[in-house]
Amino acid sequence: MTKQLDLLKIAQEEQSGDLFKLLDSIYKRSKVQPKGISDAVIWEGGNPYGNVKPVAHAFTDMFALNGTVMALDVLGLPFLGLPMMAQYRHDTKLAPLDWFGKLDYTSLKWSTAGDFMVNDSGKKVVVAGKSGNAQLRTAAGVYCNVRPYGTITSIRFMPGLPYSQDKKAFRVDTATGNVHSEMNTPGIRMAYAGRLFLKMVHETGQLGRIATKPTQGQEDTVIAGMMRWLMQGTKFKVTRKYTVDAYEEQRANVDAIVALLPKDFKAGMENWGGEILEHISDTAYGLMLHDMINQRKVVIFATDLDGDRLTDLMADAPDVLRAWGQMVMNQVKPGQDMNKVWADMGFTMKGGKDMTSVMYRMVGEPIYEQTLGSADAMLLRLLDGDETVGGEKQPYDPRIHFVLINDAYKAANPGNTELALWLDAQLEIFDKIYGDKRPRYLDGYQKLKAAIKPWGSK
User: Fold this and answer.
1) How many CB atoms are closer than 10 A to CB 374?
2) What's the average model confidence in pLDDT over 128-156?
3) Three-class SS of residue 279?
4) CA-CA distance, 457 to 77, in Å (whole number)?
5) I want to staple 78 with a disulfide (CB 3.0 to 4.6 A). Which of 48, 71, 145, 238 is the partner?
6) What is the reported pLDDT for 374?
7) pLDDT for the residue numbered 33
8) How far is CA 414 from CA 6, 399, 419, in A?
């Protein structure tokens, strides 16, 4: 067995020590630097066997950090690691967000608590920038995230927060394309997100649903108008339409954004086609439930705010549907388990924890993103010496780290069959170890180290 990390010490240093100093002693500093930056702190590790292109990992907080370094250590894949721990990014005035955003590598980022408390001149304060998500997306040039889950693929345009109700104040800046709102919604990124949606509908042959609220939010009217402009001159058929043509209503504002796009922005789109339905976003939530139940394959385009609600529903609905199904079966007493029936019926959604989110950016490779909602409390239980609280709680499940690593490394190394097969094989080993009864976190690490030969080792 190869040398092991002291994961407990890493957790302890995070709480009451110098975590940066410890990580700096574990990992080698990389010479890789983001474009236009020369002072970024970037660590590197793993085995570059097979010319595998590394993935950049955000080292954030709690299990988002601990689970990441554990999985990287077990797998031995080449990686770049950026210090994004709350205290460090607070002390450096959010500089690591800029480093991460400008690094042209397929990346893997964790969203952690926005109310993380840090030390600031002896006082406990909420970390600057809170979760840092908005700043990172701006720095990285993110224009949407894509979440494929079961038969549903959600495309959420970002950053863009409606709604402006004041028509007099509402405008599009003709120099930047930014749509007036609190977040200054970037209209150019909006166009890129809409084009990606139409491309996916065209390539998959799936039904396309546009879920905006043009009747209520001025930004949403511009978005809806942009979608109509994008479909002009294509073979898409809009079989359900908003009452008002949003492009005609917002022609001047949409044209102001269009004027800033590359001249060949729609090149080739004349051959794209598919069925598109325009919905009010509220209605789209219920329609998506029907799509999930009927296993209808759809691609849904939504705005930032509504897209966030949409993906929450995608994550929560499978558990609700299974629980309801079990209640019905218990009532009629056929003696079957709903989880088995669910799988036998062809449903693949488990409960949102395995839902991948991919953020696309204007320039550079995508950023794979995931949220660890309860990871903070879980790590504190580990530090308290009772990870399961007397058997009441389950130990931490690090599977999502291995799943996202599987997705991100395949995306970063397209065509590398050896790597793809190896990644899948390691996920199978993980599932055998964590299958029937989940081991405690540190015990699980020991078992994974014993069972998995790191990438490139003989």
Assistant:
1) 11
2) 83
3) strand
4) 11
5) 48
6) 60
7) 93
8) 34, 23, 9
